[in-house]
Amino acid sequence: MREGAAERHDRLLNLVRERGRVRVADLAVQLGVSPVTARRDAEALAARGLLDRVHGAVSWPERHGPAGTAPGGGSPVIGMLAPAAGYYFADIIRGAHEAAAALGARLILRVSDYRPEDDAAHASGLLAAGAQGLLVVPSWTRPEHQAAYAEWIARLPVDAVLVERRAEPGGPLDGMDRVGSDHAHGVLIAVRHLARLGHGAPLLVARSDSPTAQAVRTGYARALDALGLGAGLPVLDSTPDTPGHPPEATALAVRDLVREGRATAALMHNDEDATRMVRRLAALGVRVPRDIALITYDDEVAALADTPLTAVAPPKRAVGRSAVELLVERLTAGAEGQEAPRRHLELLPTLRVRASCGAADAPVR
C-alpha cells in the first residue's frame, strides 16, 4: 500500500525527535523520497509549529519536550477509541494526531463501527497495546445507550477524556474530563441567521440516531425560546428509511408545509441527508433557496452540493487537538504527583454561509 503524507510526516517527526536536528538532505535519504518532497514536508510541519527550520535542516522544538526519545520510549502513548474513522470523526482524529505529534506523544486508534457492546473490548485492546491514557468517543446512538454502556468507562484504570459526548448530570461519567462541540450554540447561530434574513421559526428536519442529532434537537427548542420565535413546527425525522434515500414521508411533509406557506426556512441534520433531501424536494417542485432557505448541520460535504449549502461547522479538528492536550497535561501532572481540577471544555461552532439560505458568503459566529 502506498504511504500517505500523514504516515510520512509521522516518520519525519520521529526521526527529528530521536536525533534533535536533521539536515533536510539526510531526511530525504532516510525517508526514501526526493529532496523536493522532504523539503516540502519539512516546511509544512514547520508551518504548523511541529518543527523548527534552521539553515537547511530541521530541529525538534524545545517547547515540545526533550529530543533523543523514540516514540513509545518515554513519550506518552495515547489510545483513541472512535465509532468511525470517516465523515464527522475524520477531522477529530486528524486534530488528535496533530496535537500528539506536536507534544511528542504517540496516538494509536481503534474504530468500533458504532457497536457500543464492543467499546470496552476495544479499550482493553488499546491498553494492552501500551496506551497510558484514553480518548473515548463511545458508540452511543440511542438515548438509552449511555446508561447501558457507561460503567466500563467509569472503571478505566487510566486517565481518560470523553470526546464529543456529554455525560448525564450526576451520572458515573459526569466527573470526567471532556471536550466537545457546543451544538446548542451551533443551532442558535443558525436559527438567528435565518431570523435576521426575515424568516420565522425554521422547520427542523433532523435524525434521531446519534448524540449529535439529539443535541441538535435539544438546542433547537432552546434557540427558539431564546430568540422569542415561539414553539415552532413539529420536528421531522430525517433518519433514512433505506440507506441513501431520504424518508419519503418527510420530503412530502416539507413540500406541503412550503406550499401552505407555513415553512420558509429549515435547519437540517446532517449534510448527506440534506443534499439528498434537496434533490428530492426539487423533484417535488420545491427549490432551494427560491422556495425554502436551508441550513445544514456538520459541514462535511455541504459546500459540494449542486446548490452549496450554508452549514453549521462544529470545530472538529480543534476538538481532537484540545482533547489530546488535556489528556497529556493530565498524564504529565499525574507523573509529577500533582492533581488539577477536572474540566468540561465546549468549543463553539461557526456558521459558513453559502447559497442555500439566499445570502452572500460569509462566516458567522
From TrEMBL:
Biological classification of the source: Bacteria, Bacillati, Actinomycetota, Actinomycetes, Kitasatosporales
Protein name: Substrate-binding domain-containing protein
Transport in keyword set: no
Species whose genome carries this gene: Streptomyces tremellae
InterPro entries in the record: DeoR_HTH (IPR001034), LacI/GalR-like_sensor (IPR046335), Peripla_BP_I (IPR028082), WH-like_DNA-bd_sf (IPR036388), WH_DNA-bd_sf (IPR036390)
Superkingdom assignment: Bacteria
Keyword DNA-binding: yes
Domain HTH deoR-type, residue spans: 5-60
UniProt keyword list: DNA-binding, Transcription, Transcription regulation
